[in-house]
Amino acid sequence: MTNRDYEKHPYDGTGELIAVTRRPPSSRCSRVAAPVSDVLIGGGFVLIGSAWDVLYKAQRAHQVATTGPYAYLRHPQYVGFIVIMLGFLIQWPTLIILIMFPILVTMYIRLARREEREALAEFGEAYAAYAAITPAFFPRRPQTIAGGLS
Q: What is the pTM of this model?
């Protein structure tokens, strides 16, 4: 299958859709950009997966999630989604991805802010103390608060 065939027909000979992670032989993705995008996409999935378990356990215990990725970020799952989208933007810089990336980032930020208001209403001072020392989207070294982060 040539690169020209790939662009016109994204299906293999059996009618199956070719996996989205398979790049055509002469794609625009350079030797540097391809590994960078792969790391971003993989890292985003790891971040989402590791945060999911922490959030699930905290919700079951009716507590603020403050361990694992939540010790560094208030919204690790949204950061994971944004990192994945950035990886796709690097790997396949199409017009639709260029248009959708800032729209989706804006939507995730707005959703995060709404969820913060809900968490503050539900958990009060516990969430306020956590939010005061834990950044929303850009990690830094975690600080200690009573009964949570270490």
A: 0.70
